Amino acid sequence: GSLRAGIFLDSAYMPISRSSQSICFVSQYREYMEFSKNVEYNRFFQTGRAVYAMLVDYCKFNRHALKVSMVCEYEFCNKEIQYFNYPHSSDAIELSFNDTKKLSSYETAFSSSIIVGMDSTLLFEMLGLGKKVLFCVQSDVLLKNMRTDNFYEKMPSELLLEEMDGQALEKKMDALKGMSDKKYALLIKDAQMHYMNFQSSRPHKL
Fold first, then answer.
1. DSSP states of the chain as a string?
2. Each residue's pLDDT tens digit, 110-128
3. For residues 42 and 176, what is the distance between their CA atoms, to the nearest angstrom?
4. By three-state DSSP, how is residue 23 classified?
5. Chain mean pLDDT for the chain
6. CA distance 55 to 44
7. Helices (H), strands (E): how many in the chain?
8. Does residue 3 register a pLDDT over 70?
9. Which of 24, 44, 90, 164 is the least buried, fewest Cβ under 10 Å from its Cβ?
């Protein structure tokens, strides 16, 4: 399990009401990646931006609110704000700044219907909590080929975007939206145990 996610579940910040129909995109913005000489860093940066752009189009077409779970706290976020606002600014996009004391990134993700990102730990934590998630790091052929450890072999294909294509993203998102909670729980059962195994007792209490 996850210590921080366990604390969140027991905290006063936990949203009690049913998840909204908003979509959450988990930022993994790192300024140093943009012009890095490391090919993998640079490709990761560009792929994350491309996935985000496709998700913006999807949310606009389907009239979903889009929340961005930011890496930075507000006063340090200028470049990350530019990264997500340009050229995709919209009233339907909410930038949720990272308040680590209140575990705000967990609240932003947990209160959304589907959480989308590259390969953030937050995605695995939400998977462990039974939330619908979509991992997109394998949508880029180069990144996929550079990572030869078969890390995602136990992840259901329904949770993996493996093409850098708007129609492929739409198909995955629509399938997740249309899947019943019961069917989804059965689909991810083994992956939950493998990647982020939450037991009945909270990790911080253990």
1. --HHHHHHHTSTTS--SPP-S-EEEE----HHHHT-S-HHHHHHHHHHHHHHHHHHHHHHHHT--EEEE-SS-GGG-HHHHHHHHTTT--TTEEEE---TTTTHHHHHHHTSSEEEESS-HHHHHHHHTT-EEEE-GGGSHHHHHH--S-TTTTS-GGGB--S--HHHHHHHHHHHHHS-HHHHHHHHHHHHHHH----SS-TTT-
2. 999 999 999 999 999 999 9
3. 29
4. strand
5. 88
6. 16
7. 9, 5
8. yes
9. 90
- 15 — pLDDT class (breaks 50, 70, 90): low
Give the global pTM. 0.91
Residue 91: is its pLDDT beyond 90?
A: no
Strand order in 66-69's β-sheet?
93-96, 66-69, 23-26, 114-117, 132-135
Contact indicator for 198, 7 with CB cutoff of 8 Å: no
In one letter, which amino acid is 186? L
Q: How far apart are CA 25 and CA 2, in angstroms?
A: 20
Inform me whether the pLDDT recorded for 16 exceeds 80: no
**Residue-level pLDDT at 35:** 85
Residue with tokens 């998700």: 55
Taking the C-alpha atoms of residue 152 and residue 46, their distance in angstroms, rounded to an integer, is 21
| Residue matched to tokens 């590259």 | 118
3-state DSSP assignment of residue 72: coil
Tell me the residue type at 197.
Answer: N
